[in-house]
Amino acid sequence: MGKRWKTEGREKFEKLDITPKSAQKLKPVLEKWLREAEQRQREGQQHLLEFVGGEPGKKRKRRTSFTPQALEALNAHFERNALPTGAEITRIAQELRYEREVVRVWFCNRRQTLKNTSKLNVFHVP
Question: Domains, the chain, ranges and CATH?
Fold first, then answer.
């Protein structure tokens, strides 16, 4: 087998050197795994891609869509203070009726966007 390392709880293989004999030994195990994955998908327990690539049962949260009014308010808060305290984030989230974590991430993403565009503007020649 090839060199491997752990990443986020899963092993990744740099290179897979499998002989025909070892592939023959793996075939029944892989066929059983594939049957189980397809069965889970048919039963609607989870999408096949989730079963193949991640922890069983762990689903990614849906992306939040902000209303235009919420974006206007968030941008206004950001103009006043790009680094709000935890209490301020909680208050803003309550006012806008979004989860606190969603608002916190919005501020992080907005700061990162500003940082990235500032880097790009350094090389901008009028």
Answer: 4-53 (no CATH), 68-122 (1.10.10.60)
CA distance 93 to 100: 5
pLDDT at 52: 55
Q: How confident is the model at residue 39 (pLDDT cuts 50, 70, 90)?
A: confident
End-to-end CA distance of the chain: 56
- Model-level pTM? 0.52
Write the DSSP string, 1-48: ---EEEETTEEEES-----HHHHHHHHHHHHHHHHHHHHHHHTTSS-H
